[in-house]
Amino acid sequence: MSEQQTAGAQALEVLQGSIGTHGGFMAISKTTFGGRVPEARAPNYYNVWARDGVICGLAGVASGDAHCLDALGVTLIMLGRNAGPVGQIPSNVTPYATGNDGVSYGGNAGRVDATLWWLVGLGVYGHAMHDDAFVRGWWGGVTKAVELLRAWEFNAGGLLYVPQAGDWADEYVLSGYVLYDQALRLLALRWVAYWSERLFGNDHLLRTVVHTKSGKVVEEQDTDRVQRAIERSFAPIGGPSAYRLAAFRPGGQSTQFDALGNAIACLAGGGLMTALDYGQAHLRRRLVPAFHPIITPRDSEFADLVAAASGDLRNMPGRYHNGGLWPMVNGFWALALRWVGREDEANDIAAAIADANRLDGCAFAEFLDANTGKPGGTWPQAWSAAGQLLATADPRFLLPPK
Predict the structure, then answer these.
(1) Which of 23, 145, 178, 385 could form a disulfide with 162, with the two C-beta atoms 3.0–4.6 Å apart?
(2) How many Cβ atoms are within 10 Å of 67's Cβ, its own excluded?
């Protein structure tokens, strides 16, 4: 077995070890190497999370592993059954809990991307399993989710308005119209459009009546409307290696480079291919940082990072969201590189992810410190294993067939 195959087998073992007795994905794996006990920062790492669970499930689809495919189905069911009254998907669900005590839609702010990942996961799973009945059975939830996303636009402008801490970067300083959430929504809507046409022969669910400034009433498809809004509103930052800015809001904008947001935008069709050039030019330890440039104590935004911390400041320069090197993020980065045919660069990223996951005796840590290269956060993180498997996958599985 080659080194790459061995690394892939270990990543799959970690991913399988994150399947709980309830059958869904947890955020942390019970599988370790070297006889160590998994280290969870809090008990809720053993919950079923929308974001972590779907990303792990996508890696399961990419690997073709039957156990992981089944776990994705269970994860989607557990999340869908606990959807809120207006269609919002939980951020996480405590297995075996009774009542609302076991359901969380977020902390100080609701998690916008939980609903988005559920829609993506449902679309990918149904297609991978050739299970039209499964998707049809959840179509009521899909309908409510799509309508909820329109409401979250607030101004009917095609872009979701996201509160600070409203997505995966829960201790970072982005708010307003955040690129990552818009790109993920576009990917989700592409799957909704595919299944609407497949199941019902039309895209009526995705038709939105829009009142233009001139007073004219038109009907647009949400995928087209959202893509145009992304292209129009997220101005390119930089010169020949331009990328879409991380976020903007009334009164300001965040011009940082968001690796995950730009990668998903490239895959979904609303990105700039030159963003891949920018990310590749700013690799740290052969991996793309979550956000760049790093915010330091000399920058005005650093006080906001301190204020956003839920406990100890995890976002010290080069750590966590503040320039940390995440195997999960790099898995999607490699997928975007493969999508445009940059196979050699994608292979280099995949190898770097495998090396990162092997540190400290295959810890599969949450992230690496960009300054020291040391593993940080919780381990063994299930989606760090998922990132490794995604990095070697054919990206076409993530997108609906045309």
Answers:
(1) 178
(2) 13
Nearest to 282 by CA among 229, 233, 318: 318
Q: Express each pLDDT in 209-263 by its tens digit.
A: 665 666 666 678 899 999 999 999 998 999 999 999 999 999 899 999 999 999 9
Among 77, 69, 84, 74, residue whose Cα is nearest residue 12: 69
Going from the N-terminus, what domains does the chain have, and what CATH number goes with each? 26-398 (1.50.10.10)
pLDDT in tens, 94-134: 997 766 679 999 988 999 999 999 999 999 999 999 999 99
Query: What is the per-residue DSSP string for 279-295?
Result: HHHT-BTTB--SEESPP
Residue with tokens 């869904």: 24
Residues 6+ apart with CB under 8 A from 20: 26, 46, 48, 95
Beta bridge partners of 248: 177, 253
- Token output for 135: 């998707």
User: CA–CA distance from 207 to each of 189, 192, 202, 220, 397 (Å)?
Assistant: 11, 12, 10, 5, 26
- Distance, in Å, from the CA atom of 167 to the CA atom of 175, rounded to the nearest integer, reads 10
